[in-house]
Amino acid sequence: MTGASVKFSRPAQGRPRRRALIALAASATALMGAVVLSGFHAELHDIDPAGSDRASELTTTERIGIRTWTVATGITVEPDVTYGTREDGTRLDLDVCSPASDPAPGETRVGIVSIHGGSWARGDKSNDDWRHVCQWLASEGFVAFSVNYRLVPAVHFPAAIDDVGLAVEWVRAHAADYGIDAARIGAFGGSAGGNLAALLGTRGEGTLDAGSRVAAVAELSGPIDLTDAAMQASGAGELVEQIALNYLGCDRLADCPQAADASATTFIDPSDPPVFIGHSESEFIPLRQSTSFSEALSAAGVANTMQVVPGVGHSIGILDEAMRGKVADFFRATLTAPASPVVTDAAPAVEAAPAPLAAG
């Protein structure tokens, strides 16, 4: 980071103040809903399961990927806005990162839901790397909503996808409050967050401007298909399989029916939104997970583009300047208008990779 200033809005002095009041009202509504649903017995608590941490999935200290981005001046961060509360009292929060300038009168912006990685078991929306993702998206002119979701081992599938789906619904319901178009909401995720972003894109059918549907998806290094057959075919190692088993709450993938429901490829249909897929050639999530996803999307007539870089970089570890440009251009091309087309690459392009980093 440089000395560039970053503004953090607080409930008493947010920018604009109306947003802070709206956020407080939304939080109060969510909290009241939790009390009603729980029969006045659930104690409110934040997401912090035993054994989890806020660390990024990037386990290296190297300056790679998103860490090569310099924080822009004037971006506003509105932290810890509650988007829902579960029946057990778990409070679900997101951060809102807004561009430095307000939109012109009558102009609406694109909203992007940003989903952190960490094997569905750790990580946080506001660790340094994912806070920078949120701020970077805002610097590109989008309003970014960086979400937390419940984690293993406190919960298993489908808790995480239910949470991020609820976040999309909340963003859509509050679109006018943040100056975004409810029909132009995209999803961005890396690693486990890439799986969740892809699943947001393929679950459901029909219109992309209602409920938890999103109008565009960009994902990096996502373990897309968790079924036993796909894991075997892609050459996933024991580490990847164990992470999936922990997430799904199963002992063996061969006897785990929920694996299909946790896999974006299960639900692909022609109504799905355009997808951007980023992956490195030799990382611990097999490249075949991404190429198979691209092939399945293409077979269904869903526009998609795939960017492969050499090396072993993982998730936002490959979100360097070149990849950032491609992701931002993808969102502009697909979300400039609700039905904007996107060109499908015939073959994955290969670019320079960042320095290697450990799996996370």
From TrEMBL:
Name by which UniProt lists this protein: Alpha/beta hydrolase
Coiled-coil features, chain-numbered ranges: none
Domain BD-FAE-like: from-to ranges: 108-297
GO molecular function term, any single one: hydrolase activity
Keyword Oxidoreductase attached: no
Keywords annotated in UniProt: Hydrolase
This protein's record includes keyword Zinc: no
